[in-house]
Amino acid sequence: MFILAEDSRRTHGRDAQSSNITAGKAVAEAVRTTLGPRGMDKMLVDSTGDVVITNDGATILTEMDIEHPAAQMLVEVAETQEEAVGDGTTTAAVLAGRLLAQAEDLLENDVHPTTIVEGYHEAARIALEAIDEQVLDAAVDDETLHKVAESSMTGKGTGGLTADQLAETVVSAIRHVEDDDGHVSRDDVRVFTKVGASSNATELVEGIIVDEEPVHDEMPKHVTDASVLVLDVELDVRTADIDAEYQVTSVDQLTAAMDAEEAELRTYAKTIADADVDVVFATDDIDGRVASFLAEEGVLAFEGLSNSDARAIATATGARRVGALDDLESDDFGHVESIDVRRVGDDQLTFVEGGAAASAVTVFVRGGTEHVVDELERTLEDALDVVSVAVESGEVVPGAGAAELAIAAAVRDAASGIEGRKQLAVEAFADAVDVIPRTLAENTGMDPIDALVSLRASREDGDVVGLISEGETGRVDDPLAYGILDPADVKREAVESATEAATMILRIDDVIAAN
Predict the structure, then answer these.
(1) Distance between CA 451 and CA 470 in Å, rounded?
(2) Are 84 and 493 in contact (CB under 8 A)?
(3) ∠ at Cα 161 (158, 163), nearest 5°?
(4) Which residues pair with 111 in a beta bridge?
(5) SS3 for 231?
(6) Can you count the helices (H) and strands (E) in the chain?
(7) Order of strands across the sheet with 189-195?
């Protein structure tokens, strides 16, 4: 009796588990060499020839276009990590892969998958407690945030700038959008990229930047103390909702029709000017004649804004998005200290600064090539995310593998008090966490086994230790002395997401696929 379609493929039992685990390990191995300050980059080329060069875990896994369903779960781990805390994507993926590798050994020794899953969840709980114990008592001030930002960017693509230089920009941006209660409006920090100058020209703009130019050459290029209108309506001749045909039998009729059309368009411009609007941002088109009339009135106008740009303008200036010109009210308008149209390279960009817009900031990223600015944008986005997380949580832990070393030690110590075969899974979890300091050692040119032995010995003496990159190799030392810090939430999220993905894969014993 056939239950499945004839072209269906089914893999079950140990074969299904082995296939899923192998796929997960392969994905983790693909990003493992990017981990740490001396991690390497990956060049990803798609079918059209577009090239992406990065060492960002989430970007690599997304661009790889992975099809295996189990491997795709590890991609989702990185995406979840990226969305939640902005960093630690490679750590999460590598840890998930190592948890699967350790589980494979247990399965070969006839430990039931459910037992492994229970042990992993117990170990994850212990790991989270260990992270809590690693949180530093000191207040998260600007100096601490600077270290968090710099630690996040070290080893990533920063163009001609150092991580230290960019960290100052990142901290300033996040502090600018922090309210009195310590909440950060992360969406109010935008990253705007433009090719054509050295990355040293990267700057923080107190306001927002839009890649738009005035709709008419005679419009002013600089407006101060400006009233702003954001329009979601087309400023063009209205058309009938039904098909209609008009017969024009004389020149007078044609002239009258044209005069009426022009009067309608002039009314749009007069309505805006009479409302004392200085600048118009429209998401739709503005007829050339309306643009000319607005220029005569001294109004600066932009058309065809994207929905995201229009939303940012409205939020930054305090304007409402208006869907009709009828009955404009003062509450519909925003306000800004200055709007400046500047030529940057071959293009014109519009800078909206000051006034209500001061609540939003933009990191204006420059670079010599598209690849440089793209990677610099990813680096800055991650740094902005982790600094935002650190500000809101107020919790940071030592970096450079020190937190993972503490997690592994805590889980290993607790394993002796767990009965039955679940103890084997807890011990396997501790061994899996060791993959992070081992990989850091390997990527810095150290012998991973010797480094791990030294780390454990130093930790047993009560020291806080990690792996510090130094020249062509690395050394075992205190990461706090080097200012290497990570938000505690990055570590928590990596442990939780990696454990969830690994245990979900381990519980699968049947894969049914249709061609």
Answers:
(1) 14
(2) yes
(3) 65
(4) none
(5) strand
(6) 16, 18
(7) 189-195, 361-367, 203-205
d(CA 184, CA 179): 6
C-alpha distances out from residue 60 to 12, 123, 145, 378, Å:
30, 29, 27, 12
Q: Which residues form the catalytic set?
A: 56, 89-90, 382
Return the beta strands (E) in 384-499 as ranges. Answer: 396-398, 466-470, 473-477, 485-487
Cross-strand partners of 178: 184
Chain segment 376-386, per-residue pLDDT in tens: 888 888 889 89
For residue 51, what are the contacts with CB-CB under 8 A and spacing of at least 6? 43, 44, 45, 371
3-state helix, strand, coil in the chain (%, to 5): 50, 20, 30
pTM for this model (two decimals): 0.81
- Cα 228 to chain centroid distance, Å, stands at 30
393-428 per-position pLDDT tens digit: 889 999 888 999 999 999 999 998 888 888 999 999
What's the token pair of residue 232?
A: 């979601």
Q: Are the C-beta atoms of 83 and 89 separated by less than 8 Å?
A: no
Reference 400, options 311, 468, 353; nearest CA is 468
Structure tokens at 235: 């400023």
Q: At what angle do helices 488-506 and 113-134 cross, to 10 degrees?
A: 180
Joined tokens for residue 502: 């690994």
Count CB neighbours of 300 within 10 A: 24
Q: Cβ of 513: how many Cβ atoms within 10 Å?
A: 11
Beta strand segments in 368-502, E: 396-398, 466-470, 473-477, 485-487
Q: Across the strands, what pairs with 344?
A: 347
In angstroms and rounded to an integer, the radius of gyration of the C-alpha atoms of the chain is 29
Question: Which residue in this structure is represented by tokens 């003062």?
Answer: 330
Count of C-beta atoms within a 10 Å radius of residue 263: 10
Q: With the CA atoms of 488, 492, 494 and 497 taken in that order, what torsion angle do they form, in degrees rounded to the nearest 10? A: -160
Burial 37-57 (b: 16+ CB within 10 A, else e): bbbebbebeeeeeeebbbbbb
Q: How confident is the model at residue 1 (pLDDT cuts 50, 70, 90)?
A: very low
Two structure tokens written together for 122: 């117990």
Identify the three-state secondary structure at position 55: coil
Going by their DSSP bridges, the two strands 321-322 and 222-231 should be labelled as parallel
- Cα–Cα separations (whole angstroms), residue 404 to 132, 455, 465: 12, 11, 11
Cα–Cα distance between 294 and 279 in angstroms, integer?
Answer: 10
> Mind giving me the DSSP string for 249-295?
-SHHHHHHHHHHHHHHHHHHHHHHHHTT--EEEESS-B-HHHHHHHH
pLDDT in tens, 215-225: 999 999 999 99
**What tokens were used for 447?**
């012998």
H or E element in which residue 414 lies: helix 402-415
Distance spanning both ends of the chain, measured CA to CA = 20
Q: What is the distance between the alpha carbons of residues 476 and 479, in angstroms, rounded to a whole number?
A: 9
